[in-house]
Amino acid sequence: MKGTMRKKIVVTGSNGQLGSELRAIDRAGRYRAGYEFVFTDVAELDITDAVAVQAFVGHERPQWIVNAAAYTAVDRAESDAERAELLNATAVRNLVSAAEAVGAGFVQVSTDYVFDGLRPADEHALTEEEPTGPQSVYGRTKLAGEAAALAYDRSFVVRTAWLYSTYGNNFVKTMLRLGAERSELGVVADQWGTPTYARDLAAAIMEMVVFADEHPDAAGFGLYHYTNGGRTNWCEFAQEIMRLGGRNCAVRAITTAEYPAAAARPAWSVLSTERIRATFGALVPDWRESLAECISTLDVLG
Ligand SMILES: NC(=O)c1ccc[n+]([C@@H]2O[C@H](COP(=O)([O-])OP(=O)(O)OC[C@H]3O[C@@H](n4cnc5c(N)ncnc54)[C@H](OP(=O)(O)O)[C@@H]3O)[C@@H](O)[C@H]2O)c1
Asked: Does the residue 16 lie in any domain?
């Protein structure tokens, strides 16, 4: 196939967890016949710079922009709201207006922290229709980013949760490190959700992109939830990490009140993935299965 026939995907924030997984997908070559990736991070494309974003996108003229950049330091955001707003909301508007100018599809990634997290009596998984009510600066700014993306009719917004990978810093790596240093640890057991391997999220995003390209009149643009399957709490998640990582560290349950943090977290943010599975056939492996897969490829074990 001629190179010019390939569709171009500009990825922002591609040194992060999700961006690194998209790089890995590109390296694996599965989409090489149909897609050409242009990976950027802040050094190549600062998404807060509206002029630079317009110029870059105008020059590349991609068919897709996938925004994997964000202000993800949830606690720091509480005292750095201006920067969080700039990166999570204003910069999304920059990307949307650049995407619109060249007719590109746009993928924005959001978070379960847009919900208030009050535990429903029937403990149902939250659908895309559930009312939002962010409790933190991070959640509020990400919700504003969703609105900016959804104002454009060629956007996907994918809410995910508890993201981890072999790249960057995340809960899995922190637990493996602490598990090697300590024999006992307290982890909160009253916040419920579902961990998500960034590799699975990256794969789901590619399924959506391909689907939209193959069904231009019924692309399915709009809001979706994607996490791994099942539900757990941070304590049980940590216990499973220790077990799979061969760490001899007892993880004991504590309450949120015993572990003060600057930003409030939802107590209940189990997301329903029904819509993304029904629309695109996205694969949703169980969280334990994906965690085992990730830990088996990490080289920090021992
Ligand atoms: N991590 C989670 O648990 C979680 C949960 C739910 C939803 N999400 C969402 O999932 C998405 C991906 O998260 P992630 O964990 O992959 O994020 P991440 O690892 O923090 O990566 C974000 C990337 O964006 C880059 N970046 C920062 N400022 C930038 C700028 N001005 N222009 C361009 N790039 C910039 C960062 O660079 P620096 O590192 O140099 O700042 C980093 O490489 C985000 O939308 C996040 O909100 C994450």
From this structure: yes
